[in-house]
């Protein structure tokens, strides 16, 4: 798999034997799957990661230190660790999460307080925060950590400013299914039980990370998704400078759908999920929509999706993407094979 993409950029650049420049955008487990697949296909890979998380370890560090949340960035770094013994060791260290100390609560107040502060934190989040403080900022810190762990790609935040998410949600109160309310916070939107109609970033005019914008504009391929649709995938299309770069780039834009229609996409057909992206991000059109075959097993669902995507001269790529051992999760080798096919499309 490691050499699947050897020579791919030859078709794009004539006789130059160069790997394709690929930018993957997202956050959390969805971006983790994408990066794990793409690092087998190209050496020129950049992750542009959402910075709107306000829950868990990331939310605590964000509040305590006034910084962008490190959790999704940590996941991206872990995904880019290779499969060598060293790479696997770094991945485990980055993802290690402190449990409740056995001494927590005993008659040792200082130790109990420290244990309480560490509880729930991921070691990688603390390493990232340390690197930022020591090396001058998020981009410099992530670059240094990437080199230290031998990451097969680069990780950038979508912005160096912590962002907020708010959404207009209908039917969040089961007693009043027609009522609309504004839900504030990434964690709160993700846990909402209603139908998300509109999503926004705050502040709406926040600056995008300049290097992320440059990478998107220079890319051969831009991959968006899978992941939490409103809180991990769409934020990149809601930040004005980054959205403009995604719209203007000459790269082939691939929108990867989730395995199923649960969570933030509960009750939406695949066509409705893509339509929600287009409605929330005017100007964005995907060249290819990658979808798991069971998502469009109903001929009507498949026809509706293909008709919508064709309106913008795009195409739908249907294949088997699900893990056999973990239903509901992308199989990264199947995903890598699908991206391999897409990156060869004319």
UniProtKB/TrEMBL annotation:
Gene Ontology terms, MF aspect: LPPG:FO 2-phospho-L-lactate transferase activity
One Pfam family named in its UniProt record: CofD
GO terms under cellular component: cytoplasm
Protein keywords: Cytoplasm
Compartments, record wording: Cytoplasm
Entry-linked InterPro entries: CofD, CofD-like_dom_sf, Gluconeogen_factor
Entry-linked SUPFAM superfamilies: CofD-like
Gene3D superfamilies noted in UniProt: CofD-like domains (3.40.50.10680)
Signal peptide (from-to): none
GO terms for biological process, alphabetical: regulation of cell shape
Physiological role: Required for morphogenesis under gluconeogenic growth conditions.
HAMAP family, per the entry: Gluconeogen_factor
Family to which this protein belongs: Belongs to the gluconeogenesis factor family.
Xref: PANTHER family: GLUCONEOGENESIS FACTOR-RELATED, UNCHARACTERIZED PROTEIN YVCK-RELATED
Designated name of the protein: Putative gluconeogenesis factor
Source organism of the structure: Kytococcus sedentarius (strain ATCC 14392 / DSM 20547 / JCM 11482 / CCUG 33030 / NBRC 15357 / NCTC 11040 / CCM 314 / 541)
